[in-house]
Amino acid sequence: MLETKNVSKSFLTKKALEDVSFTLEPGVIYALLGPNGSGKSTWMKMAAALSHPSSGEILLDGEPVNIKSREKIVFLPTDNFYYSTMTIRDVGKYYADFFDDFDQDRFASLLSKMELEDNLKIKTLSSGMLAKVKIAAAMSRIAPYYLLDEPLNGIDLIARDEVMETIIRSLSDEATIIISSHLVEELEPYVNKALFFKQGHLIEACDVEELRSTKGISLADHYRELMKGEA
Ligand SMILES: Nc1ncnc2c1ncn2[C@@H]1O[C@H](COP(=O)(O)OP(=O)(O)OP(=O)(O)O)[C@@H](O)[C@H]1O
């Protein structure tokens, strides 16, 4: 279980997150939604043990997340962390060296689904192609938790659905995934639950199917309602 308990995070005087609590359940696909600067990446980096809460804690199976928890938590950050001279094949080797759970065959198959040749150099890729390589590498790890920060950035409209399907198909039934994105409509068909951040607060957690059946509104419309007044 991945539990966020009363987590706050400040950068000097800026409060990026304030008293946020929620638990990610196994086998659920979550959308992490909120306007720019609402704290989504800040939470992901802390859950990936790349930074620490100012107060509160994030617990993986009862223990505060730490370097060791990276074995169970796959994190896809927004920035590019590959060397420009690497080929896509080198990216696979680099992951295989770092992570025992990295599945080279799955990486090859995901690259082929996304029509990427593994002899291409990182510096020659378009931003959409690079985004696909990052997704293929992350989803080739076999882990219980995946945290994807804006994975669809740079990917064209037509390819987004294919990429989302590739992500979802790569998951085992028990795996938990949380995807942050501003592309609410694109995420909607694939997610079970949504967490809404606004100005550093978790303002709502909802079940997407329930939203449609009881309120008769889409996730995107619910988002618009909740974020009214935001720039
Ligand atoms: N290293 C940092 N130093 C100072 N302030 C930071 C730092 N990282 C984040 N912040 C601030 O914390 C707040 C939350 O930022 P965060 O990146 O988590 O938002 P976000 O919801 O991921 O935004 P976006 O959708 O634009 O990516 C913002 O006001 C941001 O300026």
Automatic annotation (TrEMBL):
Listed InterPro entries: AAA+_ATPase, ABC_transporter-like_ATP-bd, ABC_transporter-like_CS, ABC_Transporter_VariousFunc, P-loop_NTPase
Keywords linked to the UniProt accession: ATP-binding, Nucleotide-binding, Transport
Signal peptide residue numbers: none
Pfam families: ABC_tran (PF00005)
Keyword match ATP-binding: yes
A Gene Ontology molecular function term of the record: ATP hydrolysis activity
Organism expressing this protein natively: Intestinibaculum porci
Higher taxonomy: Bacteria, Bacillati, Bacillota, Erysipelotrichia, Erysipelotrichales
Origin superkingdom: Bacteria
Domain ABC transporter residue range list: 2-224
Protein name per the record: ABC transporter ATP-binding protein
